[in-house]
């Protein structure tokens, strides 16, 4: 599977962790820096015409450079640190402080990108992304995440409920984000923690709510009825790290 990435920051971060080909149709300082990084990583650099790049990107809105990243077929992410959830748990055996996110029905790539950016900043150990009813990691996600998608370990899962059961069997407490839940700051989020985040429209599905140990919320006092899911995700990630001290 291949992914086309067009923003400078996303290309730079993706080349640090992945394989692919850098395509160039013009020259400037930033592109020269990308070419130098590509050569240091043994990534092929190919000169093409502007028309060829327009066809590759689907528009003329590119900046004269594209990175076509090679991504393993079985995952939405570019960080292939773990092949599956079982392997992740084996690698983390004995670790008491872990943070996993499970995204339920988040279809907007802008939200996914923003969540991955925060996940990198707060050193999230793993992001679980369902194969159905969810945005995959694409060029938009890469751009919004400012390249963080290349650093955050992620796995595509086929059964979210089963994934939560597996985490619980391995010492995780599962917390679902819901406006009717207990205040997150007053809930013990230390230890092996999984945060489940649902879509803004429907929230977490009933099936996954039933799998959660506790629902948590973020107190608000404004006029709108809810936070954007990526904003809520960032606040909850911060709260987990804050409690760890």
From TrEMBL:
Identify the keywords attached in UniProt to this record, alphabetized: Methyltransferase, Transferase
Residue ranges occupied by any tRNA/rRNA methyltransferase SpoU type domain in the UniProt entry = 99-238
Q: Does the keyword Oxidoreductase apply?
A: no
- Which Gene3D superfamilies does UniProt cross-reference here? 3.40.1280.10
Q: Which GO terms describe its biological process?
A: methylation; RNA processing
Keyword Transferase set for record: yes
* Source organism superkingdom: Bacteria
Instruction: Write out the GO cellular component annotations.
Output: cytosol
What the record says about family reads: Belongs to the class IV-like SAM-binding methyltransferase superfamily. RNA methyltransferase TrmH family.
Its recorded name reads: 23S rRNA (Guanosine(2251)-2'-O)-methyltransferase RlmB
Q: What species was this sequence derived from?
A: Oceanispirochaeta crateris
Supply the gene name. Answer: rlmB
